Amino acid sequence: MCTLILLDRVVPELPVVVAANRDEFFARPAAPPARFAPGDGKLAFVAPQDLEAGGTWMGLNARGVFVGLTNRPVPVRDRTARSRGLLVTDALAEPSAGRAAEAVERACAERHSPFNLLAADGRETWFARLHDDRVQIRPLEPGIHVVCNRDADDPSSRKVARIEALLARLDLRAGLEPLLRDLAQVLGAHPEPSNLLENPCVHGSEYGTRSSSVVAVGPARRAWRYAGGAPCETKYDDFSRLLDDFPQAVT
Question: What is the CATH number of the domain that holds 151?
């Protein structure tokens, strides 16, 4: 059960701020953020990589479009379905959040397992979900959005409610570094002692929080901090240099 938090057009000078934990089986190989230049007119992007099926769970492209994905649960994994992580790379090829959502809708002509996907570019944000074999896409208003394994901001999710309570304490005007630090603390929190999967930071014997990212995108500054393990016990490294020569697309 991954956690994807989007501070959408609510932080001064940083219209896209993301805090995300990837929860996955420890045996599944992955790589930290890297720069990808697909060629053939496709946009360069920065993303971590799923080394088993390809694709990624989140990324930022050269036009300032952020795309992030969480899985929706299924009783049995369909091993013949196309990897959901490839939907993120499909979307990252597009120059705007709206076009990214359209690309996801087109890609769902192929079979995929259920998912949630956010695309944001500082001007608009779109939420796509595949549930009961139906893809639905809708815009999101500016605000703070939390996506786990159900719908965005699901009012029935106790995990979402706990995360929202932690986020309510943030000072959105504190500046970049304090905000990144405070979001990392949210991602490393364990407010629910009785059910480990209900925490932002998940610990298990075979499954848990594999990595954590805090990303900020604005017209003058960009940042990507990445922890290659549970954020409560793993240092975040600075991968912002990967974004240094991206055009200043967000206004």
Answer: 3.60.60.10
Q: Among all chains, which residue has been given the structure tokens 């995929």?
A: 112
Q: Which of 138, 73, 81 is nearest to 109 (CA)?
A: 81
For residue 250, pLDDT beyond 80: no
SS3 199: coil
Q: What does the buried/exposed string (b/e) look like for 129-145 if buried means 16 or more CB atoms within 10 Å of the residue's CB?
A: bbeeeebebeebeeebb
Residue 52 lies in a domain: yes
Angle at 193 between CA 190 and CA 199, to 5 degrees: 40
DSSP state of 170: -
Q: How confident is the model over 21-48, as pLDDT tens digits?
A: 999 999 999 999 999 988 787 899 999 9
For the chain, how many structural domains are there in total?
1
Q: What is the pTM of this model?
A: 0.95
Helices 97-107 and 85-92 sit at what angle, rounded to 10 degrees? 140
Query: For 53-101, what is each residue's pLDDT tens digit?
Result: 889 999 999 999 999 999 998 878 788 899 999 999 999 999 999 999 9
Q: Is 190 exposed, middle or buried (0-12, 13-18, 19+ CB in 10 A)?
A: middle
Residue 201 backbone phi and psi in degrees, to 5: -100, 115
Helix-, strand-, coil-residue percentages of the chain, each rounded to 5: 20, 35, 45
Alpha carbon 54 to chain centroid distance?
16
Answer yes or no: are the C-beta atoms of 188 and 212 closer than 8 Å. Answer: yes
Q: For 105-142, what is each residue's pLDDT tens digit?
A: 999 999 999 999 999 999 999 999 998 889 999 999 99
Domain that holds residue 151: 3-243
Q: Is residue 239 part of a domain?
A: yes
Within-domain flag for 73: yes
